[in-house]
Write a structure and sequence with these properties.
Strand content: over 45%
Number of helices: 1
Order of helices and strands: EEEEEEEEEHEE
Structural class: mainly beta
Mean pLDDT: 96
Radius of gyration: 13 Å
Distance between the termini: 40 Å
Amino acid sequence: QNQLVESGGGSVQAGGSLRLSCVASGYSYLPTCVGWFRQAPGKEREGVASIYMGGFATAVVDSLMGRFTITADNAKKTVYLQMNSLNPEDTAMYYCAAASLSRNRCSEIRRGDFPSWGQGTQVTVSS
């Protein structure tokens, strides 16, 4: 059974860093597009970053560019989200999601484009 399993969340102080991992368990290979999303309490789920596996083209939402980086290890079927200079506004449940998308569509990081989702990993940033 195909599953996306996130890990790496936790509690950090403002200014700290975390690296989240998303393992595509049961998949023969990573889907063409893997994205990271987050949902803070009382807010809608929003896109954070995506990676297109054909060439590893990446996209990060403008507000997080420079602090968040997405990478992938195809051999490990794992996608990572490196988060630096964290602040309390980054507190949220972080989810990875997968889809078969084109490169351009993948870069748009639209929640509705992703049919497969992990259970999420909680990130809490204290001031």
